[in-house]
Structure formats: C-alpha cells, structure tokens
C-alpha cells in the first residue's frame, strides 16, 4: 500500500477513537446533569465510533499493513448545556466529513480503488451523521430553556 494511504487510514482510525472519547465525555456530562436519555444516545454514539475505528483497523490488517495507535487528544473539560453539546457534535461531524472526503480524494489520487471503495461507506455514513446531528441541534436550539420540552427531547433520545 502507498505510504500516503496507510497514513490516511491510520489517522482515520485514530480520529474515530477520538470521536468515541468525545462522545463518552458528552455522555458523562448529560448523565451528571440528569439527562439520562441524551446520555444513552451519546453512549450509543460512542460505541458506533469504536465500530468505525474497528472497520479501519480490520481494513489495514486485510491489506497486510500495521495499524498504528497514537495518543488520543483530551476532550473538552466541560460543556455548558445540551445545546452546547450538540453544537459540538454537529461541528465535530462536519470535521470528520472533511477528513473522509480528503481520504477518499487521496485514495483516488493514488489509484487505490480498494481504499476508495472502502471510504465510500464512510462518505454515506457521514451524510447520515451530519444530518442527524443538525436535526437534534435544531431541536435543542428551539427548546431553549423550556424544561418541559427539554425533558421530552431527552425521552426521545433515550429511545435510541
Ligand atoms: Mg465515525
């Protein structure tokens, strides 16, 4: 495999682990502030990110290469509200979309069609992640500080 593609894959694997780390920290915030539904949603999200990392891990091994584990960046120390949390979820998913698009472009540049095809799954996944994050953010923004609406939003998230 071309050096550049292997580097991109390893960066993506590490980025997925950071996403899991980030969502775990958000889940803890939601749990501590009494939003058990949002805590559950964010915990599921963290599990999903670990699965994404696992997909990259497996692909690297299948190509006969070595996955490289780097330091995982620290998560934000605190969050201001659930709206703040989902603002950060949405902006993080936009960032991950940028990473995936760059990875797919690099694979095409290097004529690594297996890697290009592999990244397409993530292209579709990111469309969904960004759309869901924006949707939830919109609801929290509309809810403002209304406790009744916040609690019913929390109950919906808890059904995930
Ligand atoms: Mg992901």
Question: Would you mind describing this structure in some detail?
Answer:
The protein is built from five helices and no strands. The chain is mainly alpha-helical. The protein has a single domain, classed as Ferritin. The longest helix is centred in the C-terminal third of the chain and has 31 residues, at 113-143. The mean pLDDT is 97. The structure holds magnesium ion. Magnesium ion is lined by residues 16, 19, 49, 52, 96. Magnesium ion (MG) is lined by residues 16, 19, 49, 52, 96.
Strand-helix topology:
Layout: H1 3-32, H2 36-62, H3 82-109, H4 113-143, H5 147-157
Helix pairs in contact: 1-2, 1-3, 2-5, 3-4
Magnesium ion (MG) binds next to helix 1 and helix 2.
Concise structural overview:
The chain is mainly alpha-helical and 160 residues long. It has helices at 3-32, 36-62, 82-109, 113-143, 147-157. Helix 2 packs parallel to helix 5 (147-157) and helix 3 (82-109) runs antiparallel to helix 4.
What structural class do the secondary elements suggest?
Answer: mainly alpha
**CATH topology tier name:** Ferritin
According to DSSP, the number of beta strands is 0
Tell me the Rg in angstroms.
17 Å
Ligand types: magnesium ion
Distance between the termini: 39 Å
> Which architecture name does CATH use?
Up-down Bundle
The CATH homologous superfamily is called Ferritin, core subunit, four-helix bundle
Strand content: under 5%
User: How many helix segments?
Assistant: 5
State the domain count. 1
Task: Compute the average pLDDT.
Answer: 97
Strand count, sense and barrel status of the largest sheet are:
none
* SSE arrangement, N to C: HHHHH
The percent range for helix content is over 70%
What is the CATH level 1 assignment?
Mainly Alpha
Low-confidence stretches: none
What spatial form do the alpha-carbon principal axes imply?
A: elongated
């Amino acid at each position: 495999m071309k050096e550049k593609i292997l580097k991109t894959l390893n960066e993506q694997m590490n980025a997925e682990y950071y996403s899991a780390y980030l969502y775990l920290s958000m889940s803890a915030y939601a749990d501590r502030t009494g939003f058990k539904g949002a805590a559950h949603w964010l915990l599921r999200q963290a599990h999903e990110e670990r699965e994404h990392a696992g997909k990259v891990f497996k692909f690297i091994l299948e190509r006969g290469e070595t996955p490289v584990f780097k330091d995982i960046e620290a998560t934000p120390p605190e969050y201001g509200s659930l709206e703040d949390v989902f603002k950060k979820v949405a902006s993080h998913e936009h960032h991950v979309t940028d990473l995936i698009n760059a990875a797919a472009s690099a694979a095409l540049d290097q004529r690594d069609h297996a890697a290009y095809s592999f990244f397409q799954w993530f292209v579709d996944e990111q469309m969904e992640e960004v759309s869901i994050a924006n949707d939830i953010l919109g609801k929290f923004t509309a809810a403002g500080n209304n406790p009744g609406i916040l609690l019913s939003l929390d109950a919906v998230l808890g059904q995930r």
